[in-house]
Amino acid sequence: MKIRLGTPISVTLIVAALGIFLVWPMAHVFGRSFWDDRGFTLIYVAGLFTNSVQLQAGLMSFLIATCVTLCCVGVALPMAWVFARRSFPGKALWSGLLLLPMILPPFVSAVGMKIIFSRAGALSTLLMNLGIVDGPVDWLGHFPLFGIVLLETLHLFPILFLNLVAALANIDPSLEESALNLGASPMRVFRRVTMPLAMPGLFAGMTLVFIWSFTELGTPLVFGLRRVLPVAIYDSVAEIGTNPSGYAMVTFVLVISALGFWISKRLLSRHRSVATLGRLSQARREVPLSFRGSLLLYLLVGGVLFAAVLPQISVVLLSVSHRWFLTVLPEGFTLEFFGQALNSELTRTALVNSLSFSLIATVLDLLLGFGIAWLCVRKKIWGSDWLDALAMLPLAVPGLVIAFGYMGCFSGSFPNTLLDPRMNPMILLSVSYAIRRLPYMVRAAHAGLEQVSSTYEEAAANLGATPFRVVWRITLPLISANLLAGAILCFSFSMLEVSDSLILAQSENFYPITKAIYALLESLENGLNVAAALGVWAMALLGAGLLVAAALMGKRFGQMFKAG
Amino acid sequence: MNEASSPAIEVSHVVKRFGTVTALDDISMSIPAGEMFFLLGPSGCGKTTLLRILAGLETPDTGKVFFNGRDVAELPAHERGAPMVFQNYALWPHLNVHDNVAFGLVERRVAKLEIRSRTEDVLKRVGLAGLGERMPGQLSGGQQQRVVLARALVLNPAVILLDEPLSNLDAKLRVEMRHEIETLRRDTDITFIYVTHDQADALALADRMAVIHSGKVSAIGTPLELYARPPNVFCADFLGEANFIDGVVNGAQVKTKLGQWAWQSEDKAPPVASGSWCCMVRPENIQCVEGPDASVNAFQAEITGVRVNGATVTVSLEAAGVPLKATVLTQRCLGFKKGDTRWWAVTPENVVLLAP
What we know:
Distance between the termini of chain A: 40 Å
Number of helices of chain A: 25
Oligomer: heterodimer
Structural class of chain A: mainly alpha
Radius of gyration of chain A: 24 Å
CATH topology of the largest domain in chain B: Rossmann fold
CATH class of one domain in chain A: Mainly Alpha
CATH architecture of the largest domain in chain B: 3-Layer(aba) Sandwich
Low-confidence stretches of chain A: 273-279
Strand order of the largest sheet of chain A: 1-2
Shape of chain B: elongated
Order of helices and strands of chain B: EEEHEEEHHHEHEHEEHHEEEEEEEEEE
CATH superfamily of one domain in chain A: MetI-like
Helix content of chain B: 10-25%
Structural class of chain B: alpha+beta
Distance between the termini of chain B: 34 Å
CATH superfamily of the largest domain in chain B: P-loop containing nucleotide triphosphate hydrolases
């Protein structure tokens, strides 16, 4: 019998890659927070709750994340219900537009937000001109939480929206109809049938939002709010070798997110067997919305969207304005900052760096993602559930944790080599981008493979194609749209990855775009404008990429951002 | 029938388990070249698993499969050379009709020109000439079915495996496709292995068939043999309608609730031991008679229902508490009413004794 090595070799490579670049850094972080030179200790973990600075940072982060999650539910739940159950003109367009806030990085919008809400910013000036307040108000200084919660809510509510729409759409209409038929009023049906069935989806979405906002580094950093957990972790990178309290904080973040994901995964799998059999017993008939209803919906959704893109608009305005100080709208129009954003040494290097890191990351993701999906869906290898869970883990592991882990692991174990981020972060940045976005790629490939019946491959083998030829001629062409969409997504997000970039890129010639923007914010002369211009360039790139990805994946695009 | 020296396909003591479920339990059969052989059984009986084992898409846990005397157990699917017609067609949606049909030829590295001519020939043969540029999605169900058939035929295989090929077609198309398969069958010497749960398809098309029940071979034989003289109750019941009457055999007589019945075995059949048996009578072998007659097994029964099929009528009867069904030509039972009691008879050669 011929021995077939393809599967064992690919399993070994994939498991090794995930082991070294995902499991090890986490294990390292975990280990260092419980063990020091003298052995096992709980003082660092205890420090989280006894050290008043750390405790305050933890509580603040918790407060922000809770507020953001609740606000997102408030915004997303009604919208999701209408989108899942009612039809109205322009629904597809609105569904696409609603993804917009999510794809624009809050890190960049924070710059714009600052302009609107700062002491000499647009809002203060507007209120002064209207005579509502007497002098300039420093909104962010007075209400730093408000800005962060608002910005993150507007950024993250689409994730919850997508999860909810899917959960509501996957409920078999006959389940609701039989409840109506047995005498329950529509309101009772919603409470007793619809909501319980949509609960796992709601919870999964809430978990994603909570963890995302709990670990958001860029936004508080730009707002100058330093007493939150992610910023505290960021600050502790400098003393990573000497003070293990950073490790303890990262472990805490890790435990919180793992817990959330574990619970939502359990909820999802318990329900999946009944409520969402994959195919509905009958198609749902959507009730058309009245003209008045549609108009109201347009106003509401349009308003939310406008609020969500307002910071981005102000970023664009900032990038083309000479002066924006104590005026509602900027004064003087110029394109020089776009030129500066491409011409200065710092920004040009950053663009080139980001492009090459992201490209490497995308190729890595394509190989890993397709390989993992193939082994899990088609080969159904022993332990494929574990492999899949491992590949999905980066969803639950914030970029902060991975970057921190890399810093700790590789700078200690491979000092002064290419794997030492302090020497050259190129490999680690690319790999961290790849690992961070691997779930999207696996999911895209997974979805593709599940939609493509394995009979297609069996038929090809049956007609004489070798396993490799089957993949080449049948599988890859059939899921190419999914793979391409996944790749574009990986690339675009890598271009604007925040926490990994801020932590891992330590010297200026290796700065990616996001770190360059952050550096520019600190610089004096026109730094803000150039940063905004660089942000606009990045947004344009990201937007174009996502449009292409969305066009390729069609309706399935939204599935990429779903939990579980 | 073609009597080849070594059978085209031989299955020997094949066992296949999925977890705790035994899908195939010691299956053996031998299929001569050129035969239209049916695997017939209810859904879940293991017939598709057996077909997939023949195609190399599943591996048996134990047992062997021989193609022309050659053990193919180690051969992966792509080296079996037994093209399969999949139940759900499995036409690749990204390839047009021509490329779908040419797929196997490309994999066999056949020259481009030959691929084109062979593909066009076979498309003509299945009545799809000129549709090569269409995408599978633009074809009707019947046309898709023909493309799948063409995809297998173009390879000039020795064996074609068919997995419920007609089950996705509506009634009219089924009849049409049945005819076409019959024509195809006449024009080629390909061995067909045909899986179906539809006994009508099997009885109409098969040279021989194996009735599969819970992963075991229940019976193998020609449609006529198996219909008229089924070897067991499952076969009798699955191949058409049957009446079962319990009885006790004593010499050449069997004592039933309907009286002492005479029965007649086939010449070669082994002798029947005394004891409990089950008498199987096909509904069309219960006929209405004028009165008792010593040469046949006659009994009185009350009519409990009349269902008109068209040319025939199915009459529900009850005799001595035993419910029976009789199929009678329509013109013979014009006066039949529910509640009538009449005389009925079964000739001894139409009584088949089966182990209960």
